[in-house]
Amino acid sequence: MNMKRYSELDTEMPIGVFDSGIGGLTVAREIMRQMPNEKIVYFGDTARVPYGSKSKETVTRYSRQIVRFLLEQKVKAIAIACNTASAYALPEIEQECPVPVIGVIRPGAKTACSCTKNGRIGVIGTRATVSSGSYTEFIHQIMPEAEVFAQACPLFVPLVEEGLWEDPVTDEIARRYMASLLDHGIDTLIMGCTHYPLIRKTIGRAAGDMISLINPAYETAMELRQMLGEMNLLADHRPALGSTVPQYRFYVSDMAEQFQQFANSIIKYGILASEKIDIYNYSGKPFSAEEGAG
Amino acid sequence: MNMKRYSELDTEMPIGVFDSGIGGLTVAREIMRQMPNEKIVYFGDTARVPYGSKSKETVTRYSRQIVRFLLEQKVKAIAIACNTASAYALPEIEQECPVPVIGVIRPGAKTACSCTKNGRIGVIGTRATVSSGSYTEFIHQIMPEAEVFAQACPLFVPLVEEGLWEDPVTDEIARRYMASLLDHGIDTLIMGCTHYPLIRKTIGRAAGDMISLINPAYETAMELRQMLGEMNLLADHRPALGSTVPQYRFYVSDMAEQFQQFANSIIKYGILASEKIDIYNYSGKPFSAEEGAG
Q: How big is the CA angle at B265 (ends B264 and B266), to the nearest 5 degrees?
């Protein structure tokens, strides 16, 4: 990390948040709740969603393109709201990027460790997040004796996106995914994909009353606030009413209209507009010394 | 179309086939069955799959990149195996491309028209294919009095990719998708997405015995053979054994290994290898007069 660069940041700059699509809005929503003074620039990569079935190389390339776009928007920090991108791309982005970056995995792992009583923690996520082993790694850094059991749940994202939030089919699929985790006697379950909190009730029914469900979005916003506080980068007042730039700006790489409909069902703050940008114009190569933290 | 350009094509050149991912292998399989002498270069856009929830503009851009890659492989013709890409990008690609191009929608529409007795035709497909209205348009060109009823089935692709080909959950989802089509009294149903023939039995159970299921892959291969025949471009002998270039070559934009596993479950010819190529190196812009049909 390059502290000299950080000195160019100021409290008035927005926070950048990105995701493969709409799921990261659950993280943006937590930032809005916990830091109502902050401005947000959100990017959803709807032209290439989903990330959860793609490779580390591809996800890292896409993430670098988005980070370049967000830096152009002069953000003071970046939250990677997507679990898959956090698992695959955070280590590189963190090294290269000239502003502080936070992912959702370490905060989720931390909360799980403070919640568990029997040291048996379950993780559900995309195939990519599970096979990256990132949650297990962070949990073991905090609690080396913990036992971690991970289960990929690839049908949850399409079921959520089809609106089957309360549906016997989603209940049935949740029961199947949960079966082996329950056999392992977990007492804590990390919802390791930003879509999953939207079907929290279904997951809760399948997991049963005795298991604590962890939503990393909440803890990620907390940790981001702490980090910005320590760097004296927290906004200390609401943006002026009537400002020409809205407090929350939403960008996508495709299907701006559909994004907006879905976004308005998740975020109650009223998303006035979302804009399609051409993400292909941004390089997916590693950051050079000049643009990066070098 | 530019006949002068076509004169540069010869019978020994391979046929290019592309899809958003793995589904188009059902079309490649039909080409292998019906034209065992032909070489095939297949491209699956696994870095950006699925196309069915994306916009016309994005799908056309991706298709142009792939066509450029296939032209570099010196194909004599291109089959767009993806319904969404056929619906959205074929009109432009057909105009611009210096080799003959075929999609899956017109062949599917033709077969449906020759099958139906009551003139009531159902179409199932991705959201994009359905909202494009392409099947309806082609059906009406052939049979203006036909009534067409379309139903998007966005959960079928993830269910197929998760391997739930014979499963009560897939049966339940199929029943829901089929309900309104059955109310309309259709006697013919086009499986307007290359994944759907893989759950033909499930779709058949939900549709009932009285409805003819149309698989456009079969008719697309037939029409391609006829077109190549008319242009004197059909290969007249099997590629020599021991040739350094395999008869069937498979390329993807991501996850080459997973592609191969799935491909081998669909195609019985033995896919020895699939290679990842960098599709971002190919332009997604319209073809210029020099490279295109001018």
A: 90
* Among the listed residues A180, A160, A159, A173, the one whose alpha carbon sits nearest the alpha carbon of residue A205: A173
CB contact under 8 A, B255 and A55: yes
Q: In chain B, which residues have pLDDT < 70?
A: 1-5, 270-272, 292-294
At A204, give phi and psi (nearest 5°): -60, -40
The candidate with the shortest Cα–Cα distance to A121, out of A108, A131, A103, is: A108
Considering only CB atoms, which chain B residues are within 8 Å of A55? 254-255
Instruction: For residue range A5-42, list pLDDT tens digits in order.
Output: 677 899 999 999 999 999 999 999 999 999 999 999 99
Burial of B220 (C-beta count, 10 Å sphere; 0-12/13-18/19+) = buried
Total-model pTM = 0.92
Active site residue B153: no
Select from B102, B103, B101, B99 the least CA-distant residue to B293. B99
Place of tokens 């020409």: A244
Q: Kind of pairing, strands A248-252 and A274-276?
A: parallel
Q: Is B82 a catalytic residue?
A: yes
Contact B135, B192 (CB under 8 A): yes
Chain A interface includes B204 (CB < 8 A): no
Alpha-carbon span B197 to B104, nearest angstrom: 13
Query: Per DSSP, which regions of B86-127 are E strands?
Result: 101-102, 120-125
Please report which helix (H) or strand (E) contains residue A121, including its range. Answer: strand A120-125
Using an 8 Å CB-CB cutoff, list chain B residues near A161: 154
Closest-CA distance of chain A to residue B253, Å: 9
B159 touches chain A (CB under 8 A): yes
Please report residues of A whose CB lies closer than 8 A to that of B61: 280
How far does Cα B195 stand from its chain's mean position? Answer: 10
Q: What is the pLDDT of residues A176-212, one digit of tens each?
A: 999 999 999 999 999 999 999 999 999 999 999 999 9
pLDDT at B271: 64
